[in-house]
Fold these 2 entries.
Entry 1:
Amino acid sequence: MALSRRIFLRGSAISMIGSGTAPLWLERAACAAESTGKRKKVLVAIFQRGAADGLNIVVPHGDPNYYALRPAIAVPRPNAAKQADTAIDLDGFFGLHPSLSPLKPIWDRNQLAIVHAAGSPDPTRSHFDAQDYMESGTPGLKATSDGWLNRALPPAVGKPSPIRAVSLGPATPRTLRGGNSVVAMDSISTFGVRDEAAALVLKSMYGGSKDQLLGNTGRETFEAVAMLKGIQQTPYQPAAGANYPGGRFGESLKQIAQLIKADAGLEVAFADLGGWDHHVNEIGQKASVGQLANRLDEFGASLGAFYQDMGDRMEDVVVVTMSEFGRTARENGNRGTDHGHANAMFVMGGPVKGGKVYGDWPGLAPEQLYEKRDLALTTDFRAVLGEAVHSHLGKKTIQSVFPNYKGGPEKFRGLLRA
Amino acid sequence: MMRKFPAILAVTVLLAATGWAAKKKIATAPTAATVAEMTPEQRVIHALDRLAFGARPGDVDAVGKSGLDAWIESQLHPESIPQNPALEAKLAPLETLRMSTADMLKRYPSQQMLKGMVDGRIPLPEDPQARAAAKFAMARFAKSQKANILGDEAKPSAPKDEKALIAKLPLTDAQKQTLRTGSKDERAALLSSLPADQLMDVIDALPDAMKGRLAGQASPEVRRKLQILRSPQQVVNQDLIEGKLYRAVYSNRQLEEVLTDFWFNHFNIFLDKGADRFQATAYERDVIRPHVLGKFKDLLLATAQSPAMLFYLDNWQSMGVESPANKRGGKKQGLNENYGRELMELHTLGVDGGYTQADVTEVARCFTGWTIVQPQRGGGFEFAARMHDPGEKHVLGVTIPAGGGKEDAMKVLDILVQHPSTAHFISKKLATRFVSDNPSEVLVAKMAKTFTATDGDIREVLKTMLGSGEFWAADNFRSKVKSPLEMVVSALRAVDADMDSAQQIAGLMNTLGEPLYRKPEPTGYSNTGADWMNSASLVARMNFASGLAQGRLNGIKVDPARFNGAADQIERSILLTEPTEDAKRAIQAGFDAQKQMRPDRVGAAIAGLTLGSPDFQRR
């Protein structure tokens, strides 16, 4: 199906070019079709900035210590009569926070896996250091100049699509920085020179520029702009039943879905969602209100809508979520939690062997806690990302992506179908 | 309005600008014979590109007239240059720029301060005005906390109808009438007349669309008042960012601004990390700015003892394992190596400067006890002996005997400042910012030699750089890609923009990829021009360029008469050089194809294209 669509695109574009009526974007699209127009494997990385509380997101309701540590802000054990305010049971031991109900059907279809007690082995509890380490993919090494997701891109075959690596947001995030060209944009619709007459002049100015750096960046930019303009010619209509919530994160995922379905060569995408640093009022009078519930409403509904929207195209897609570290196992004095260590990661997609919480549960008894306060780490985040890079994007050696990681495929949790 | 400068300029400059820099160059550069030199005209433009944030209209002529060497000499002594009154007028309303951190926290309380006051842990300010403002902010804080705990139940279900909402407001009938049907000016006057608490109640009760509209119509004073009431801490950050932009655009002491940007970035801190939200203002003003042309040692010591840096790199919490506090028992705290590492890697020696992990740990031990009194309340530096590791230390081969207390860290700073790696590292960074992305080892060594010989005198190191053939080599003319800040400020200067507000520019800096004071990593932003090119940033530059030239940016005026001339005149007035043939052709072709454009808009459009062109992206 993808193939026939591609032939149609090329055929019709070329005939239009021949007759002199082709819009510029179509010409571009037809020329770029060698490297695009095919269904690509796509890896979507999602960063929850601010250190999300994995223990209240994927709740270990079977661990009595959890309730002892959090008398005021634990998510109550699953209770069918009070569904909206109790954990949604997953496997008799773990449950989802009730605001994540949109993810439960995906779990039931075995396309959502969770890795608990996962994260960065670096002991820092500084947001900015920990984000930096997770995004560079090199915990403990500050000198790394590029990000893991840029290094994860497979070698380009032929002329690479101008939009093979996209970040939704105003600047290229650390995760995507590096030698492969990346498009960062606030949104598809605002990415472009607003004044159309000026755009034409600037395009020809940069196209003909002898300034190598500016000329190349300009040419890449206008190619991406043209391709995105082409994609936007048809207003995007998410699949039936996919209701993206308002807000930047839902909008980002919607645009990633749009780009994937356009078969324009997208291979890696990045989006983030801030506001997880819940030192105060993490959980209100009941689990469904409070700061955490607010964030999870948006997070869960957006991911649920994305899954629904992608439909069977989810076969090509793996979504991985991460946050720089977890939060203290014990609640603090302000109905919140402080900076901790290990966390929970979600892995969603067609190739995922879901319906299972992966990883070894280290326990929450006092002697089991990391530095007597935090959930201990049993899975290095690079084992999770590494598996996605290796099995999904087909990167043979993950050492090129995670240079100071000693583990290899033997550390993988078996999250993805080979 | 159009200047006929190329001819005049060439003459003036030829006559006047062959002074100091040229003489020095000949004296110190043995390779000068083989290096192509800039023309005298290029020298002036180059100096304004590199030692300033670009030229304003008339600057090239003025510098040419007074003589390039005299201009450079005065920029090296900023205190000798009278400040621009326009700048002083723009900075006047930004009162937080002049407050001590402690005062600022009282008048513009942070969330933590408010929480402390609500909980009764922190006393209310004594000043009656500050006290009233604090009470008001506390009430709002308590309300927002309650809403968070209770979820939607705490929020009253507000009717959407504007008319019904206005009817319920605590205002007179006449005031309500003004709000409903008054003119823009009448509404603005009404808002100005309301006392602070009533003002906020009125604004709060209105639907969002009307809130925005009203705030937009209010006077700048009322807007500021509203912002202070809504989010005092945000005003502090806004003042800081606006102040930086105003100074960069309008200051007559341009080199001081360029260097303040350089050194802040070298000793970077992050505005969104905890206490640095309110420490950053004093950090730039009292720690960085006074030393930008002084001795490196003074600058380094000032940063090492600044609450902003102590907080940013966590040294304030670092506790000696063998410290009295830890020996006393109770909750044990450990050593934090964050500052010790960055001090050597980023502030002095450089990553390849010859230190080991053991040195990092030893330096961190020396710095234990360098902490902050009550960081969340704006306290300053203190040495806390109870946190200090009293034992013997070994740093870079030097033994620091036991019992040195606060002096341990002072010795470390001495060792680092005198280390040849520091002289080299600092010189190379300056040369990368000012000369080229890849300065020669010959130049860096020459600057490092001056650094060592003058006890780290930054002014002298810059003089060596400015006296080198390499700084004035033709290859380096317009060779560096501007950072977003350099691009934006040079554009505002090139068209002589009049700014009433820098807020939209501050927002644009995020889109351009250089949010001001918000580089989370201690590395600071890159000084390598090539690092600044990416698609999102380029698109944002182009949009900024056309928005500026066509007068679409809020609070920024550009005189349209400036763009009345022919296309190549407009291009030249912005670039100061002959535009490339490619650019000229593209602009011409573009406008031939746009016959329907209104003639009075063409000039501004050409200016926008010139500002967005490849040529303008370099300095």
Entry 2:
Amino acid sequence: MATFMSLAEAVSSNVFDGDTAAFEGFTHLIPHAAAHEAIRQGRRDLTLVRMTPDIVYDQMIGMGLAKKLIFSYAGNPGVGLLRRLRDAVENGWPHPVEIEEHSHAAMANAYEAGAAGLPCAVFRGYKGTSLAKVNPNIRSIICPFTGEELAAVPSIRPDVTFIHAQKANRRGDVLVEGIIGIQKEAVLAARRAVVTVEEVVEDFAGVHPNACVLPHWTVKAIAVVPGGAHPSYAHGYYARDNRSYLEWDAIAADREAFMAWMKQNVLDKDADVFAGRVAALRAAR
Amino acid sequence: MTGFTSDEMMTIAAARALKNDDVCFVGIGAPSAACNVARLTHAPDITLIYESGTIGTAPDVLPLSIGDGELCETAVTTVSVPEMFRYWLQGGRISVGFLGAAQLDRFGNINTTVIGDYHTPKVRLPGGGGAPEIASSCGEIFITMKQSKRGLVDKIDFFTSFGHGEGGHARERLGLRTKGPTLLITDLAIWKPDPETKEFTVTALHPGVTREAVQETCGWPVRFAPGLVETPAPTALELDTLRALRARTAAAHGGQEVA
């Protein structure tokens, strides 16, 4: 049953040291504010799950929250590499991070299997690839009807999933619009789900009957954080801050520059700063 | 200068390979420009699909990521990521997958994962994303990348996406029923796999490009097809379309160029 609370309270009561935590959003609706709150609260030894780690996990890994990373594309899309992740993998800074690497198809299927309550996902994939040789969680299964060999991976069942979404109604139902990505599956696959939203509305009158709505009883906590996806975006509210993604490359390239940026923009701030960060992006929607 | 750059020639040659009735899965980076030039010139009805779930998208500017808002706003429909990979890609509904590569070998195998050993990498690259299953589930695969000895290598360090393996009938032996890589478009040439060995062979040189220039930027001994031809130079329409698209894109992304 969804309870409205502050982001600080939603994070402190739902993610704990050692948890498997997913912060999802496929380019769109990435829960940056929630990740920053987890950084401020100093969570440790997390197994972080995310299809496209990008800036948000570069920050969490660089700040030492992650013990392990489960992912399928570790890049800053259209810009380049994730330099904090690379520093952790290549040099063990700030400490070594174990990685479990998949393809998008595998992760998408694994979240869906998690949402469906299945132990594993079965799909046609990984044929001829080296990942299948280095990741022991990529296995195969024989179709009992046709004899076809299919790929199998364990389902993803996070202790907690964080997503950002456009809006909640008073009851706590959550509406996700635009590139819905993996939001629904990531919430339904998790034991606990925390959603940050742009706003709360009275009801969802006028919304299409087939819209992506997560009923209030599938969500544990909702925090209202306008701009909470920045520099990702919220369709209908503000545009993606592509300049921030481009600028991140230089910030993340240097350990000291990174730490200074994190102190100034994350550790010394709170969730209220996000509304201001998207003010200029609202015109561009 | 002959009025166009080798990069423009590459993008335009890649665009020409797409047909009006293609359903094309667009990889991140260089393929995106080529696919949209095709849509804005000879293939107005082409269906462009990005892995964010946007089907039939028609962006006015090139997206920086595969999930920019404009892809969704201009799409025929936007589906979830599991649906994208299950129903549309795995379901066999995509005719062409268009991929870029960090490292490529002569049989069209792609590495975008690591340089060096996987567990102690020299350089950790982003990884596969959608590419491993794009490479196996699309009807055929086009690859576009700039030539360099670091890029076109004798042996790739990691098979992120399987092409033709060690050549010949490697795909059939693995049970893959799709064609795999059928075309490579670089900044210097057009390459097609030999029908038997599946080794990429140069079939056309871009205007002004020599065989030596192709060999100097390739890490394996290059084979040239007997009927080697010259790629037609970009037309005014093709060049204008590409340059206008890049200008709109640069303006939209704060003055910075997007691959």
